[in-house]
Amino acid sequence: MQTVIIVVHLMIVLALVGVVLLQRSEGGGLGIGGGSGFMTARGAANALTRATAILAAAFFATSLLLSILARYGERPIDILDRVPTTQGGTTNGDSSSGGGILDQLGGQSTTPPATDNAPAEQPTQPAAPQVPNQ
């Protein structure tokens, strides 16, 4: 339903742009206009004005319809709403598990692994500053 309305809306937009471009300029804007145009008769100008008004009303109606469908239509599925369950049957998002959804993604741990072979002494500093040869 929404796809059909979008296609109709796009066809109305293209027709509206075409009808507006067909209308004769009255000498305003960029100073171009007047003279002999594609449709110079007064009846043709009235028909183009009437067509513009009808297409503008249809554009307004389809825009309102699309916004109403977006508001009251089917809700999109959020990936954060689908939290996987653990083996115990509780969700991982519970406060008893001790972590949030970002903790469940995995990756590297925040604490470095402790090593028993850590050196007891500090690294030695150079005796003098090292200056490159020029």
Summarize the structure.
39% of the residues lie in helices and 0% in strands. By secondary structure, it is an all-alpha fold.
Structure description:
There is one protein chain. With 134 residues, this protein is mainly α. Helices cover 39% and strands 0% of the residues. It has two helices and no strands. Helix 1 packs antiparallel against helix 2. The longest helix has 31 residues.
Which strand-content bin applies to the residues? under 5%
Structural class: mainly alpha
Round the Cα radius of gyration to an integer and report it: 35 Å
Q: Element order, helices and strands?
A: HH
Task: Give the uncertain stretches in residue-range form.
Answer: none
* SS field, number of helical segments: 2
Q: How much helix, percentage-wise, in residues?
A: 25-40%
Average pLDDT reading = 74
**Approximate shape:** elongated
Largest sheet: none
Termini Cα gap: 76 Å
- The number of strands is 0
